[in-house]
Each structure stands twice: as C-alpha cells, then as structure tokens.
Design brief:
The protein is mainly alpha-helical and 113 residues long. The chain folds into two domains: 6-46; 55-112. The chain is built from five helices and no strands. It has helices at 6-20, 26-31, 38-46, 55-91, 94-112.
C-alpha cells in the first residue's frame, strides 16, 4: 500500500494495529503512531462523520460505486490483456493469442452492460 499521504499512512498503521488487536482503542492507537502523524490523527477524530443515507438513496449509491469499481477493474484487465496480446504476437504464440482475444471480447461485452 502506498504511504505517501497522511491518511494513507494512518490506514497503513491501522491495518497493522488490527493485526495485533481484536478491538480498537483510539487512545492506544494514537500513542503508537509516529509523531508526524499525531496531528493528522487528531484532525481525523475532530471531523464529524457525514450523515448516513437511508433507504433507496443508500442502495443506489452502493450500486453506482460498485459499478464504477467493476468498470475500473474491467478497463485495467483489458489493458493488461492488450499488452499480453502484443507480447504473444511478438513471440508468435498464436494459440495463446486466440485465448486472450476471446477473453478480451468477453470483457468488452461485460463493460457494455
């Protein structure tokens, strides 16, 4: 996990914390953080959480987000397959190229849904 931003560093430490602890103790977690993250952690505690949407709006937002994540994954996989096809063409591996093209076509049709 990249750790170049304060919140990313906090999440990295939080994951490590839960590998050693069953429950969360904010004070214990905060004292175990490096000094440079102390202020960021304090700010996180002071910011109010956004209100949770209820009912159909919440479900619609979940659907929209999951669709977006799915599309991002499919685009990433299509890019990887395209690179694999190019590599296999250079190597002359026709049977594997055909399999990759089939998978590519399947993913393109999934992306259109």
């Amino acid at each position: 996990m990249p750790k170049n931003r304060a919140y990313q560093k906090l999440l990295f430490h939080l994951v490590a914390y839960f590998k050693e602890h069953e429950t969360f103790d904010g004070k214990q977690f905060g004292t175990g953080l490096p000094q440079e993250l102390g202020d960021s952690y304090s700010i996180c505690l002071l910011l109010p959480l956004p209100p949770v949407q209820e009912g159909e709006e919440y479900i619609d937002e979940i659907r929209k987000t999951s669709r977006s994540l799915r599309d991002m994954y499919l685009r990433k996989r299509l890019k990887e397959i395209g690179q694999e096809i190019k590599k296999k063409e250079e190597e002359g591996q026709e049977a594997e190229i055909e399999q990759l093209r089939t998978e590519f076509s399947t993913l393109v049709s999934e992306l259109k849904k």
